[in-house]
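Table 4 source record.
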Amino acid sequence: MSNVRQISVFLDNRPNQLKGVMAILKNGGINIRALSVADTKDFGILRMIVNDTEKAVDVLKDASYAVAVTEILAISIPDAPGQLSRVLDILGSENVNIEYLYAFTGASDKAVSFVIRVDDNENAANALTRGGIIQLTENDIAEM
């Protein structure tokens, strides 16, 4: 199984919060590979995959941000109609619940990559492998 670590940063939902995180990562030499921001009225959750997870967590915690690390799956599929539906069919056939997903730019313009947070990483990874879906590692993503 090739779980990838995702960093979640909890932010107040007010101006310049995201800018502050980006400045800290820039100053730490951290390169963002995938990013998603979800919000509520009072707070936001910045989710990201970076080229150096440990260093990113350290610099963010040093700056007093609330940070969590979660294991997710990352996949690469052909950039063609129906490919995400195929992935969802594979996971659905195993009763894997998808909590969220987001796309990110991959290494090829012929493929698209997704971060997938599920309720059972092992079951999902095994089902994706059986279905011929390419799973990415942290190294794969860091080298993109």
